[in-house]
Amino acid sequence: MAKIHEIPKKKECPSCAFEVDSNETHCTICNYEFPQGLNLDWKKLTAIFLLLVFIVFIFRLL
Length: 62
Ligand SMILES: [Zn+2]
Description:
The protein is about 30% helix and about 10% strand. It is α+β, with helices and mostly antiparallel strands and about 60 residues long. Strand 1 (about 10) and strand 2 form a beta hairpin. The protein is elongated and about 55 Å long. The N and C termini lie far apart (about 55 Å). The protein binds zinc ion. Zinc ion (ZN) binds next to loops.
């Protein structure tokens, strides 16, 4: 009956190897700033999606 759905995502700090919450933007130990954009980069996804739609549209015209 144990719910295993809500496992908090952890990421390892490359500076001090401490596991911090994936929501954190800075390491709680050494204050290392994690690079942004890996989690839910919808702007990039939208750009790729639009590019794919554009390519499909072009191929349909050919
Ligand atoms: Zn750290």
